[in-house]
Amino acid sequence: MTIPTPLERPDIIIPDSGPLIHLAQADALALLHQVGRRVVIVDVVAIEVTQDPTKPGARLLQDWFDAGQLPGSNAPISIEETTIGALLRDARQANPAARIRDAGELAMVQWLADKVHETDHTAMVLYENGKVPRVIANQGIDADIDVVTTRAFLNLAEQSVATPGAAEYWRRIVEAAPTASEVQATTMHRRVRSF
After folding, report:
1. What CATH number does residue 154 fall under?
2. Which of 107, 102, 101, 112 is nearest to 137 (CA)?
């Protein structure tokens, strides 16, 4: 059995607020575009990380989202609308503290199922919530997808785009968020191809 090679320049999908917050705190958001083509944030995660401007990184992330959504941006960001996001927005109008359990993961799976198969997309899903790899595996989505933790992403960035400093970025993350997950995991799913 051959081990698949990492994908080159995939869309980077973030279904979990942890990686965004931690990369913002480490001043490492630019790595996302150095490794990938475009960053896809499901609407649920965008809401979670920017709704309260007093939360760590909220203003920085909102500015980054805004810049990445400008026409012609060389660091494109797509905030993808999902049914789960619409439900969350409606629920928060009635109760600002409303939450939907596993909303980011559910929204990401909906996006993957609806969008990734439309073209020969490749995707990298960046996560810290340990449910994400299982959710993707259970869906059987027909696409080339690498699923990586934030820590594994930093190492991948250091290797693939010769960006020095995975250890330094990680030190900054742990300094800002001591409970950040140290797990370095990569799961690779490849499309079934008929020849």
Report:
1. 3.40.50
2. 112
Question: Sheet of 77-80: strands edge to edge?
Answer: 77-80, 39-42, 11-14, 122-127, 144-149, 186-189
- H/E segment holding residue 78: strand 77-80
> How far apart are the C-alpha atoms of 94 and 72, rounded to whole Å?
37
- Per-position b or e across 14-45, b if 16+ CB within 10 A of its CB: bbbbbbbbbbbbbebbebbbebbbbbbbbbbb
Query: Using one digit for the tens of pLDDT, what is the confidence trace for 113-135?
Result: 776 655 566 888 888 877 777 87
**Token pair 């449910």: residue:** 131
- Judge if pTM exceeds 0.90: no
What is the DSSP-derived secondary structure letter of residue 43?
H
Q: Which domain holds residue 163?
A: 11-189
Considering only CA atoms, which of 43, 69, 36, 41 is closest in space to residue 145? 36
